[in-house]
Amino acid sequence: MNEPREFDAIIIGGGQAGPTLAGRLTDAGRKVALIERKRLGGTCVNTGCTPTKALVASAHAAHLARRAGDFGVTIGGDISVDMKRVHERASGIALDSRSGLEKWLAGMRNLTLIRGHARFVGPHAVEVNGEALSAPQIFINTGGRAKRPAMPGIDKVPLLDNTDMVALDTVPRHLVVIGGSYIGLEFAQMFRRFGAEVTVVEKASRLITREDEEISEAVRDILEREGIAIRLDAECIDFEPTGDGIRVGLHCEKEPRAVVGSHVLLAVGRRPNTDDLGLDRAAIACDERGYIEVDDRFSTNVEGVFALGDCNGRGAFTHTAYNDFEIVAANLLDGGDRKVSDRVPGYALYIDPPLGRAGMSESEAREKGFNVLVGSRPMTRVSRAVEKGETLGLMKIVADAKTGKILGAAILGPGGDEAVHGILDAINWGTPYRDLQWAVPIHPTVSELIPTVIGDMKRD
User: Fold this and answer.
1) What is the mean pLDDT of the chain?
2) Which residues are known to be catalytic?
3) Which residues contact 388 (CB under 8 A, 6 or more apart)?
4) What does CATH list as the number for 162-268?
5) Which helix (DSSP H) or strand (DSSP E) does residue 398 occupy?
């Protein structure tokens, strides 16, 4: 192999953190190589946030059309879904986003975009397409993919993952979703609204177990009201081909022991794309799950090598990947001292209505030893929800009784993914919960109930 081509920085992966970091580094005059083996934009643009939320929007339109009579609106004939058109719309939005990213990168001075698979050949060198590249700083941003655990019969049947789901242009007769968390539940509801029979299979005793029990039960209620079958405590999940589809085992003893679906979505978690990077040749440390080990500033155990985004195990969202970039850029280019441990977690479950989460749940706060105050309000008592005819769900805020600091909140209801940002900001600023009680929010909104919930906070 010839002498390596030298750069100031190499970025492996064109997902959320990579292109933005390339922009900052090239603006600072650095010579940068950005290496991408598939499509720019990573999971979010291509198979995650962008196309799935476009599908959620189409599913919502179908659902609202079926409910038109509830609002005094008459629509003639049956409501049907043109799945090919739905798919074309979602794919078009994703393509536009990716094309915009490609144009932005093409206009970056000092950037070399290389298409291919990068593998380490040393601590500060990689090989791609038979060529060696070196740099004093290397940033790994390789993302993740759907987990495929060892389960009986898993290799005997065709199973779908999130990438396959956004490529569907037909409606399954019966979609069986394995996994009762965020990805699985979003696809479950949207395809039910598209017209499929849907069954969700979950090993645990409730859905989205990271949330408090009343949130889990409220989400289950929303889905079951739409005709989605929920099968919990499924201790004997296995797969077997049948004449008319795929048999999915549920229980060893109790009935029903199995369900037969035409399609099966496996949504049981994600794994990092780190197993084919040659990390051992650079002596870069990973944990037992394959996530690259990083410190509070995303440095690996090898000086000058950083890991950002889903591959570092510090977050599995587009916004956390972008924040990884912000932390690294601030520390390397702006003289900052930002740390990932200062980040307040926030995320959303994009069923309809959505769940917005900021900070800790009540159970998590109690596990960490906080003496908590809790305030809660059902959406049936929120004017905006009543007016929109969307009264399922609730809002809940948790605070530290000792310091008065807000610890977390969940808003499951119309606009919950947006309304929760007021709480997320307050947590970031360290605002005492009593200060929010005297805010004067706009009526009628979901956010206007935040001061009311805070005013009712008490020890359970």
Assistant:
1) 95
2) 443
3) 414
4) 3.50.50.60
5) strand 394-400
CB 41 within 8 A of CB 34: no
**Residue 303: exposure state from Cβ atoms within 10 A (0-12, 13-18, ≥19):** exposed
Structure-block tokens of residue 216: 């889990």
pLDDT, one tens digit per residue, over 184-211 is 999 999 999 999 999 999 999 999 999 9
pLDDT reported for residue 1: 57
Longest dimension (CA), the chain: 74
Q: Determine the pLDDT at residue 290.
A: 96
Please give the single-letter amino acid code of residue 360. Answer: M
- CATH class of this structure's domain 5-144+271-342: alpha beta
**What is the Cα 151 distance to its own chain's centre?**
24
The pLDDT value given to residue 2: 73
- 42 DSSP 8-state letter: H
Q: Which residues of 113-142 are buried (b: 16+ CB within 10 A; e: fewer)?
A: bbeeebebbebbbbbbeeebbbbebbbbbb
- How many whole angstroms separate alpha carbon 306 and alpha carbon 416? 34
pLDDT digits (tens, 9 = 90+) for 28-51: 999 999 999 999 999 999 999 999
Q: Are 153 and 23 in contact (CB under 8 A)?
A: no
SS3 174: strand
> Which residue ranges make up each domain of the chain?
5-144+271-342, 162-268, 346-455
Read off the pLDDT band of 442 (50, 70, 90).
Answer: very high
Q: How many CB atoms lie within 10 A of CB 178?
A: 24
Domains 5-144+271-342 and 162-268 share a fold: yes
Distance CA 64, CA 86 (A): 16
Q: Rounded CA gap, 194 and 241, in Å?
A: 25
- The whole-model pTM stands at 0.95
d(CA 73, CA 70): 7
Q: What percent of the chain has pLDDT over 70?
A: 100
Residue 371: φ, ψ to 5°: -90, 105
Neighbours of 17 (CB within 10 A): 34
What is the reported pLDDT for 386? 96
Q: What are the tens digits of pLDDT across the range 63-118?
A: 999 999 999 999 988 889 999 999 999 999 999 999 999 999 999 999 999 999 99
Q: What is the H or E stretch that residue 325 is in?
A: helix 318-333
Pick one of 3.30.390.30, 3.30.1330.10, 3.40.50.150, 3.90.180.10 as the CATH number of 346-455.
3.30.390.30
